[in-house]
Write a structure and sequence with these properties.
By secondary structure, the chain is α/β, with parallel strands linked by helices. It has two domains: 8-231, Aldolase class I (TIM Barrel); 240-301, Non-ribosomal Peptide Synthetase Peptidyl Carrier Protein, Chain A (Orthogonal Bundle), CATH 1.10.1200. Helices cover 41% and strands 13% of the residues. It has helices at 19-28, 41-46, 73-85, 100-103, 116-129, 149-159, 200-208, 226-231, 240-255, 257-272, 278-285, 291-301, and strands at residues 8-10, 33-35, 39-40, 64-69, 90-95, 134-139, 163-167, 191-194, 213-216. The chain has an eight-stranded parallel barrel, surrounded by four helices. Helix 6 (149-159) links the parallel strand 6 (134-139) and strand 7. It is globular. It starts with 7 loop residues before the first strand and ends with a helix. 44% of the residues are buried.
């Protein structure tokens, strides 16, 4: 998991770090550690056909961890087995997702910060189920009055977890406010810092606080070369439009044009953010359903031949 010198991780982001986006990230940073968007243990074990990522294979994706979420230890263990057999280099357990359908209605994600006994059972089951490392991603706690992440880390250590990623917000904060990470206490497993890490200065800041690596999430949106810049493997591409077109092609190849084009619109918005006439560009893109028309609009916006 720590193949690059700066120990940089690409964070799991639902609806974003799918296989096409991971391919773009990998073009700029061949050795970074990437975590997939989260996969439901129920959907994965049942093989739900309407969820395409249930059938991903990872053998050609380099150093990649596959993230699962759920509240059933048995299904979580079975999911870990499936992903290990599909080529994941490690398994990551989501213990930080704050959205209600995961953290409250499903009793998974961030809810496991409230139930350390269940969290420990899930971790132990997953560790025993596979021969590859298992990590967890969590938050500081459920709310400001219950910032007990170190207790959960101790459960993780006792369960055989290999490393932990900590997001510097509570579940109650969601993604609002600023991420505030405490200085890392002395612990027997690596702790990766996450939350509002946007550049090399932020990476160095959390490393100076004692963290063993940095996990970058939303800062990648619209600039998938960022991790490569931080690791020193690339510069910002001179022809961003070509990257946008490649990303679109990958989305269409993976999802098909009918689903892929609407899903790509958010990426087009992020790529164009801050550019001249970007608002008009986004309006046009959001009205397009035809692949060639969308490509022509992208070529025109980025002045491609």
């Amino acid at each position: 998991m720590f193949d690059n010198d700066k120990k940089i991780f690409a964070a799991p982001m639902a609806g974003i770090t799918d296989k096409p986006f991971r391919q773009i990230l990998r073009d700029f940073a061949p050795n970074i550690s990437i975590v997939t968007e989260m996969i439901s243990c129920h959907s994965l074990v049942d093989g739900h056909k309407n969820c395409i990522r249930n059938f991903d294979t990872y053998y050609d994706e380099g150093n990649i961890g596959a993230q699962i979420f759920g509240a059933d230890p048995y299904l979580m263990g079975e999911s870990a087995k499936i992903l290990a057999e599909s080529g994941a280099k490690w398994i990551d357990i989501n213990m930080g997702c704050p959205v209600p359908k995961v953290a409250t209605r499903a009793g998974a994600g961030a809810f496991l910060m409230k139930n350390h006994k269940l969290a420990g059972q899930i971790m132990e089951t997953c560790v025993k189920a596979v021969q590859i490392p298992v990590s967890i991603k969590t938050r500081l706690g459920w709310d400001a009055e219950h910032q007990d992440w170190q207790d959960l880390v101790n459960v993780a250590i006792n369960s055989g977890i290999s490393f932990v990623a900590i997001h510097g917000r509570t579940r109650a904060q969601g993604y609002s406010g600023n991420a505030v990470l405490p200085n890392k206490p002395k612990l027997s497993i690596p702790i990766i810092a996450n939350g509002d890490i946007k550049n090399i200065d932020d990476v160095e800041r959390v490393q100076n606080m004692g963290y063993d690596g940095a996990m970058i999430g939303r800062a990648m949106l619209g600039q998938p070369w960022l991790l490569g810049q931080i690791c020193g493997t690339c510069e910002k591409p001179k022809n961003v439009g070509a990257i946008v077109l490649k990303h679109l092609d990958l989305m269409i190849d993976y999802y098909g044009a009918k689903a892929g084009i609407p899903m790509f619109r958010k990426h087009a918005a992020w790529y164009s953010a801050g550019m001249k006439n970007s608002a008009q560009f986004r309006i046009r893109v959001n009205q397009i359903t035809n692949e060639q028309e969308l490509k022509n609009v992208i070529k025109d916006f980025w002045s491609l031949d």
